[in-house]
Target: acetate--CoA ligase
Amino acid sequence: MDMQAIASKNGNFNLKDYEGTRETFRWEDVNKHFTWNDTGKVNMAYEALDRHAEDSKTKDKIALIYSAPEREAKKTFSELSKESNKFANVLKKYGIEKGDRVFLFMPRSPEFYAAFFGILKIGAVAGPLFEAFMEQAVRDRLQDSEAKVLITTKELIARVPQEELPHLEKVIIVGEVPDDQGNYIDYKEEVDGASDQFDMVWVDLEDGMLLHYTSGSTGKPKGVYHVHNAMIQHYATGEWVLDLKEDDVYWCTADPGWVTGTSYGIFAPWLHGVTNVIRGGRFTPDDWYHTLEKYQVSVWYTAPTALRMLVSHGEEKLRSYDLTALRHLMSVGEPLNPEVITWGLAAFNLRIHDTWWMTETGAQLIVNLPALEIRPGSMGKPIPGIEAAIVDNEGNELPPNQMGNLAIKEGWPAMMRQIWNNPSKYESYFINGWYVSGDSAYRDEDGYFWFQGRLDDVINTSGERVGPFEVESKLIEHPAVAEAGVIGKPHPERGEIIKAFITLNDKYTETPELLEEIRVFVKTGLSAHAAPREIEVKDSIPKTRSGKIMRRLLKSWELGLPTGDTSTLEE
Ligand code: PRX
Model:
């Protein structure tokens, strides 16, 4: 669609002189905001939390507003700092040290955030897991990371196969402790008994902070490892892109099990000391409008799937809420449809700013800055300090308007530093000095980037990244399934849905009940968002002569597209 560009915002917005800033900007310039200038050492938990708790102007400011259907809570910077100190003392008591992996598998709650900062304060590496994960997803991540401690709840502990996790030394339960003879530690009891003073473990910028597991097109999920140094970019983008000001009330809708929920649900807002709304529970338009209204949210970061759902519920609904506090909107995770931007202008009288980045990149890279005009359908331009290009498969830059691999010159502050336990996988991201994203895109003559799709088979369903291999592996564990091939199928609201093609074992015949059983099998074994919404039974699944499933061919069949080169197809 060819739409008119939307003029830039005036007023307080940052980076009016985009080109000029790009030329003179150095990442080192951001350093002056941080304590390590004096000490040489650092800790994200200090910069994002304790610094504000020590400052008489901010210590009693509300840091966190937690809102869920059954519970509401507010914590000041001082309260959150003390509770995280207590939790750091609990970890210390149980022998946790710098570099150990401590995982969180629980819904969003004030305890989650206190525990998260406690983990950072002791210098350990936090691994947040999405609460919808089922046993296999949990097992894969805890085994690969060799996590020593898991913080979870009574409701979720059944999905943790403790006997298969030899490295897991302690399980800490938040809320009611199950009476199943397990060797559990009661979060509340321990925290209540711990001192609220803790000597922060100061670390180096390159020390580990966070492990986020994410999916590729092959193999199990991989552990993307981030270090404290990422704060430089979280801070800078908090200013330039989130446009955070002291009095803002900020809400990022993402769960901390995904990278948006940590980089922009924890780090960026709290590095800037703003009040952060954390909303638990499920999505409904009324619920979200209500949250925006009740807390007078001024800056909102959400996802295209959510926005498309709001669009489908109409402007009428929105009009019954007072959303006048809202002044800045952003989106991430999937392509943002131009229609949604148009709707946003009419409904909120605000521009929606698309932002592009990935789990691996740790922070925003290509964005629609407040000070730039928006070209609907474009992800925007690289932030200062970031060089982006379209490259061919050898890492050579391509001219404007030519499609290719979206790539970033390696070495930005928030870039992942490892794929956990998998150095060769890490290496495989880089060609000729470029980090190659796996997305295809082009750049226009004016430097705007336009997303075109994934170059691999990774599926993006409602903004969540799903690896087809994981789903296929789970499917063939079902006794009825012989082979499986899984693709993303375009869907108007969810971006893509997961479609599985399967062949059945001899004894089985296709019935709606069987297909539903198979779907539920994936849902309860892996996770709800990875369960195929459509399953189609085939006589055979196309494979290469070396036995690789030809997902591309399945997709072409599904979409009625030309099948292209099938010379490697088995017979
Ligand atoms: O394909 C791109 C898509 O999401 C992928 C990254 O997914 P994940 O690591 O889960 O991180 C999501 C949030 C940081 C990318 O390779 N993606 C992300 N943002 C956009 C996008 N696609 C189009 N437009 C975006 N703004």
